[in-house]
Amino acid sequence: MNPEQRADNLRGIVMMVIAVGAFAMMDAALKQLTPHYPATQVAALRGYASLPVVIVWAAVLGRRARLFQVRWSLHLLRGAIGIAMLASFAYGLRTLPLSEAYSIFFVAPLLITALAAPLLGERVGANRWWAIVIGLVGVLVVLRPSGTQMLSLGGMAVLGSTLCYAISAITARVLGRSDSSVSMVFWLMVAVAFGATALTGSDWRPVQGAHAWTLLAIAVTGSIGQYAVTEAFKRGQASLIAPFEYTALAWGLGLDWLFWRVLPQPIVMLGAAIVVAGGLYLLWSERRLDSTPAAL
Length: 296
Known about the structure:
Elements: H1 3-33, H2 39-61, H3 72-95, H4 98-105, H5 108-120, H6 126-143, H7 153-175, H8 181-200, H9 212-235, H10 238-241, H11 248-260, H12 266-291
């Protein structure tokens, strides 16, 4: 791996950790809205809430944003996938606890890694597969899912959302070769906002004033998360970046302590240690491969 790709991978990892934290906070806010609005409306509100932030971001960048110099076909595909992803996840959150939903959604790194080889031509070595499996084991230790929700409508909806997310991550990697990050986020939010509104149709419910702060939180965390995850998959190799989805566990532990002063149970700490071990193993093995001299 050349130094430039190594630097891009490191940047991608950092951005993924930031993205996961932002999305964890956004998901908590979205869950507050699911009892009050249809799933497609929740997806639309996520888009509308983030659009002002993205527009300001594009204005600051000016010409560098390149909003209209894009590959329209892939943006339309990504928009449709984004609507399906958000609406399905919002539907699942109606009946599933956030932890149960995450336990299903953590299949995403496996899907991304599996898709990276045939669709992106990335070489997915055994070390990356082992890191993903180790991380998944750690997550299952922490969440201890009973499995009773896996075949429910909510569980299947989250599973469908997971597949959409994996495909979206692959398209971000492809689009990143030609389009700016801000254009990718902007058109995704436009598609989600207006597309999900059209799908909601007559089921649209008036937005309650009491939810203004929740929408503001979604706007900020969603915009940060969308930019960071777009930048992560644009810069780094998808199969390397994907395992860092598991850092959602670390963000959850930190937020529990910061806001509620809740100490995790020993089993949670054990699972967290396994997740961290998977990440450290991946970084160590990648560094070892980079330092191995090429055969003459």
